[in-house]
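User: Hello, beginner here. Can you help me understand these amino acid letters and fold codes? It all follows right here:
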Amino acid sequence: MSKMKRAIFNSLILILGIILLGCRDIDLRSSTVINENGSGVVKLQVVYDDFISTKLKNDVIDHEWAKENGYNFNKYFENNMNIEEITYEFKDIKELEEKINSSGLATMTNLKRRKGKEDIYTIDVKFNKSAIDNLIQNNTNDEKVYNYIKNIKFINEVEVPGNIIGCNAEEDADENTRVWTYKMSEIDDNTKVDLSYRIKNHAFPISILPK
């Protein structure tokens, strides 16, 4: 198993232990911001309350794994919640695509095309159900553990710089941001993140005027 997959699984097991302590507040969140030049940042967060914090001996996120994979780790307190956060900055969408595809847990494709004076961007992310199931099942024979992990809620947010013209998200946070929320048990091979947006092209033709 790759270090990335093992780190994800270890975090899930630790989260499971937290859940078994009782019905306390905990969320898994992902936030991706794409800039107009294609660069951007991905933030992955584990958010939990003070009760859970007092029961933890270590942070949920593996610091060593984060550093080895180019993520920056941060931990802070906001709105009465503890937040563990890792961020990854990418220089273009192609780099983001390669990062997601290398995990084996999802497949991302992106397409850019010109339409008149606008550039149209289409991003598709398809989850790999068998890889996610294998990640869990290969590391536990306990059906109860498996079922708890499968029911963890995951919130995925994507912000783009242009006008959104197509999307399969359930929620509009604002005109540039869409939000997907699902449990891991709801993820199958048909689960996708589809998003299309347009940006005005700023390249103008150069006219050579006669003297």
In short: The two ends are 69 Å apart (CA to CA). The mean pLDDT is 80. The CA atoms of residues 101 and 170 lie 24 Å apart.
